[in-house]
Amino acid sequence: MERNLSEEEKYIQAKKKVEKIKGFYGNLLAFVLVNAILIFINLYTSPSYLWFFWPLLWWGVGLIFHGLKVFEVFPGMGKEWEERKIQEFMEKEKQNKNKWE
Questions:
Q1: What does the pLDDT look like over 1-16, one tens digit per residue?
Q2: Alpha helices in 46-78 (DSSP H)
């Protein structure tokens, strides 16, 4: 179901997208800085056991999924899917409301 969006709606959608991208880059920057500090601490205090790999690995996995979502790499779960689900829930709610009238 394709809607004709006004310029204001397009602007709001674009702004939301920019906010998501900005959030991803903030997460990426924190990932790099914090993990650089953890690597330094690990190598300085106990170079015989490299534990910094664990936070690097799991935060990295989360960062990858964050990036995939923000840059809409999974097309099945993008805006079209969201719109279909919204319409589905609205229709279901409408049917439930009319059921008791």
A1: 456 778 888 899 899 9
A2: 53-70
In 3D, which of 12, 27, 13 has the Cα closest to residue 63? 27
For 43, left (φ over 0), alpha (ψ -120 to 50), or beta? alpha
Print burial letters for 51-60: b (CB count within 10 Å at least 16), e (below 16).
ebeeebeebe
CB neighbours of 69 closer than 8 A, spacing ≥ 6? 77
Please give the model's pTM, rounded to 2 decimal places.
0.70
Q: Which residue has the tokens 């690597």?
A: 39
Q: How many CB atoms lie within 10 A of CB 67?
A: 15
- What's the CA gap between 8 and 20, in Å, rounded? 19
**pLDDT tens per residue across span 15-58:** 999 999 999 999 999 999 999 999 999 999 999 999 999 999 99
